Amino acid sequence: MSTTINSLESKEEISLKPKASENLTLTPKIHPLVKSFLAERETLFELTRALGSPLNILFPELVGENVEGFQKTFRDLNVIGKVFFAHKCNQSDSLVRRLAVKMPILMSAQPTNCVML
User: Fold this and answer.
1) Is 5 helix (H, G, I), strand (E, B) or coil?
2) 3-class DSSP state of 116
3) Residue 9 domain-assigned?
4) 94 and 110, same domain (yes or no)
5) 98 closest CA partner among 71, 66, 70
6) How is 27-94 classified by DSSP, letter by letter?
7) Do 41 and 85 have their domain in common?
8) Which of 38, 96, 106, 107 has its CA 20 to 30 A from that of 83?
9) Are 97 and 63 within 8 A, CB to CB?
């Protein structure tokens, strides 16, 4: 994306196009379990052949870690916050079941398609 501004006083053009060296990139933080799974390329291909595509792969054992990470950040920064988890009724309930077992104190009496943590 490039933007050009014409200065009224000097009548010169100022380009706001970022230099290639200024482009920002984000490196994803990938859990070792997920990284290990993604390294098993043949397993991914077998799952896609058997179940079709797109393929949603969930790691319910990691959802508790994610919630704890958010809560720790809230505490560390002295921020009052809540974690909300939206869940479609027609999708896998494995994440909700995992949270109910691992963190029952966090479960709320919200409608069945939305769990507030």
Assistant:
1) strand
2) strand
3) no
4) yes
5) 66
6) -----HHHHHHHH-HHHHHHHHHHH-SS-----GGGHHHHHHHHHHHHHHTT-----EEE--TTS--H
7) no
8) 38
9) no
Whether 111 and 64 map to the same domain: the answer is: yes
The residue among 93 and 53 whose pLDDT is bigger is 53
- Checking if the pLDDT of 51 tops 80, the result is yes
**Per the structure block, which two tokens stand in for 110?**
């919200």
Segment 8-45, tens digit of pLDDT = 555 555 566 666 666 778 888 899 999 999 999 999 99
What's the pTM value of the predicted model, to 2 decimals?
A: 0.56
The CA distance from 67 to 25, in Å, is: 26
Question: In the prediction, which pLDDT does 10 show?
Answer: 54
Give me the pLDDT at residue 57, please: 85
